[in-house]
Structures are given as C-alpha cells and as structure tokens.
C-alpha cells in the first residue's frame, strides 16, 4: 500500500483545512487509516482514525470536536476535516494504514504503511 497525504498549507487561526490521504494498491477497503502529526522535537501525536468500513472513528484528546474523519472506499481516500484551527495545530500530518483486526487506533506501531506528510501551518 502506498499512501499520499495532501491538503496542507498556511492558514489563519480559526480557519478550516481538509487533508486527504490517497491510497494505491490493493485491499484499501480492509485497512484502518489513522492520522498522526509531528512537531520537531516532540513525539508523534495521534490525531484521528477510522476503521475499514467507516463505522468507527476515534480522535486524540486535543481534538475536542473540531475535526471529522471520513473515508471513500471507492476512491481509496480518507479525509480529515479540521475546523477552528489553532496555532498549536501546526505540524506535519501523516496518514498510516493498518491491516490488523482490532487495531489500537492511537498506537503508531499498529500501522504498517505510512505516506510522506503534509505540512499544516496555522498563524495567529
């Protein structure tokens, strides 16, 4: 599976941004997809995840209802809509894929494939 995150950019505090994770390869519809972010000098942080069917989602504690995650198994994409962005959301955002049944969404080690990240910068 190859993943490619896109949609990052420079926005102002309070703005919204939609990130997209596009996958190529087989069996996308069987993988859970997660978004993580990393700020230089800090640990990778769990943002959001969605199971293979889209019926189950989970979010990092810091999200507090600002983000939604959705998937389109026909297009092999997962979108992360981020609303009310804050400067502390500035990071490189990565998407990962997990083929594991019962995967633990917030654990980066559960994801077998990663794509290059996309930079999100939120100015105050």
Write structural notes for this entry:
The structure is a single chain. It is built from no helices and eleven strands. It has 124 residues and is mainly β. Strands 2, 4, 5, 6, 9, 10 and 11 form a seven-stranded mixed beta sheet that branches. A four-stranded antiparallel beta sheet has the order 1-3-8-7, with no helix packed on it.
Order of helices and strands: EEEEEEEEEEE
Average of per-residue pLDDT values:
95
How many E-type strands?
11
How large is the share of residues in beta strands?
over 45%
Largest sheet: 7 strands, mixed
Q: What is the overall shape?
A: globular
Helix content: under 10%
Q: What structural class is derived from the secondary structure elements? A: mainly beta
Distance between the termini: 37 Å
The whole-angstrom Rg is: 13 Å
Low-confidence runs of at least 5 consecutive residues = none
- Specify the number of helices: 0
Task: Lay out the secondary structure.
Elements: E1 2-6, E2 9-12, E3 17-24, E4 32-38, E5 45-50, E6 57-59, E7 67-72, E8 77-82, E9 91-98, E10 113-114, E11 118-123
Parallel strand pairs: 2-11
Antiparallel strand pairs: 1-3, 3-8, 4-5, 4-9, 5-6, 7-8, 9-10, 9-11
